[in-house]
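Input sequence (214 aa), recorded before submission:
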Amino acid sequence: MTDDLHPSTHLRAAGWIPDDDPERPWDEAIAPAARWLWERSAAEGAAPLLVSNTQSVSGWDYADLDEIARAGGHATPQGRTRYDHGPVFVFVPDERSLHFAMDLARGYSLAVVEGSLVPLAEWAAGAAAINLLTGEVTTSEIPDEVRKDLDSVIFYGGRNGWTGADEKAQVRRYLAGHIRSRRLNPDQAAAYALSQGVSDRGAKRLREILGRGR
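Predicted structure, token format:
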């Protein structure tokens, strides 16, 4: 593995645990991600940081998360404490906390445990994230020609988060047919967009445009 940064996420490495087994206990999902991030932390010379959707952890009883929080802190998008960039563990993120975690991990490594809030398979593929259950780099399920159109849409309107009428029209023109043919779904498009530097608000807006025809 090289230490080159990913061209769009600017991460040194990414690993994730997919939420693909409803019977898997959370601690069994957390443990391999935590081990991997501690290894990356040692190699990168910085303490890992925990990111979650909210500061409240009532009901949590996960020793691995507590250990990371004690080492580097516990950040949320709503928090006011500033943290230095470093390796990050983000637990069951939504779009906002994932984008926040990616920014904090810039130049370092990011470990993600997927939850039910946001499907992340196409984010993982776009970020070249390792599936920490299999050891394999995640591959996309989006056909190449569909991803080419999606890349065009991201290039044209992703920086502004598809706020303009022309940008929204281009989304529908390029991608509506792929949605109708079920070669792409709104969740896949939004997750992939997050891996390509689109903001959390932009990714949500892309999902809404594709899902509701707006």
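Checked by second reader. Helices lie at 26-44, 63-72, 95-104, 121-126, 144-158, 165-180, 186-195, 200-212.
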